[in-house]
Amino acid sequence: MKPADSNRPVKDGADAVLSVAGLGVGYFPEKGRRLEVVGGVDLDLRAGRTVALVGESGCGKSITAAALGGLLPPGMVRDRGEIRWRVGGDCSPGRGLAYVFQDPGECLDPVFTIGSQIREALPRAERRGAGKRLDRLLRTVGFEDPERVLASYPHQLSGGMQQRAMLAMALAGRPRVLVADEPTTALDVTVQAKILRLLAELQQLEHLAVLLITHNLAVVAEIADEVLVMYAGRIVEAGPVHILGNPRHPYVNGLLKALPQLGTGPARLEGIAGTVPPLGRRPPGCRFHPRCPLAQPVCREREPPLNGPGDGHRAACWVREAEGPT
Ligand SMILES: Nc1ncnc2c1ncn2[C@@H]1O[C@H](COP(=O)(O)OP(=O)(O)OP(=O)(O)O)[C@@H](O)[C@H]1O
Ligand SMILES: [Mg+2]
Is residue 241 left, alpha or beta, with left meaning phi > 0 and alpha meaning psi from -120 to 50? Predict the structure, then answer.
């Protein structure tokens, strides 16, 4: 049966590598006081597929991703829901999951060579005599001169090269799941495209299940299979990526309207008035109601469930639900 606090589609995710059900993270600013950071998040990551997690700054994307690998910041606890690895063998969370973050320069240690840092990321038993493996990893992420790169220090590489090195490091542990949290935001536009293409290639090559966090809806439309839109800690719309062509939630409409359009004369950024409420100031009912152009009295009182007509497209909106399927 579908749990009440859940955004899981009807199918139960049995084919997923990693399944998350009803995930909730609390922040405890002081003893006995819990503020919800994220809640009721369901997520199924499948081999060779990309799920994109989108939403404005501060809505809980990075905390959701961090919770998967137990990397939550101090004061935060994953105290709701379940994370299940559905494959056996060596896919323990430590080895099965790898991260790539926004700023490779910050993740790489300036005092060690790229080679020694990637070697560290190899499973312990593979570190001795790892030359061939390192060479292959670097070639996999598009370096034609692995020896030179392995001997380099991070500051000797460009941002794009650093992010390739981070990808090589992520692949070193032979992950089943790759979590990429804004992997290209710190890079300039032409390099962004190359890294995203590489990510897509690696995913196919290594049969990875990818969770991609991004602000960029154009990227989502291009490379994701599924999309989850988060607002103030909750999933408000979810489904196959094509739902972005016909969104139901007013928040998602707002996000799409905020995209600059090419070729339509002077850019008009309609955006969404207001900002994501901080932890502890999230309103009751639908959390989006203070910013919502369609808000009704019910929206202030009760939180809408994430529902849909059964085709995988689900939205949490009382007004849209009352309107019926489009
Ligand atoms: N270390 C921390 N301590 C306390 N609160 C935090 C911490 N990190 C994040 N938060 C809060 O948790 C909420 C979710 O933050 P999160 O970093 O997941 O947002 P995000 O969706 O990843 O945003 P962005 O797009 O800016 O990366 C926000 O209200 C944020 O202020
Ligand atoms: Mg983030």
Answer: alpha
- The model's pLDDT over 208-242, given as tens digits with 9 standing for 90+, comes to 999 999 988 888 988 999 999 999 999 999 999 99
Number of domains forming the structure of the chain? 1
**Cβ-count burial of 159 within 10 angstroms (0-12 exposed, 13-18 middle, 19+ buried)?**
middle
Joined tokens for residue 260:
């600059």
Domain ranges, residue 119: 104-175
Query: Is 167 within the bounds of a domain?
Result: yes
Q: Is residue 29 part of a domain?
A: no
Beta strand segments in 61-150, E: 76-85, 97-100
* 147-175 pLDDT per residue, tens: 999 999 999 999 999 999 999 999 998 89
Name the residue of 37, 41, 103, 228 to mutate for ligand 1: max ligand atoms within 8 A of Cβ. Answer: 37
pLDDT of res. 186: 84
Closest-CA residue, ligand 1 atom 19, reads: 58
Ligand 1 atom at minimum distance from 74 CA: 1
Torsion of CA 101, 44, 251, 287, to 10 degrees: -100
Q: What does the alpha-carbon distance between residue 132 and residue 118 come to, in Å, rounded to a whole number? A: 12
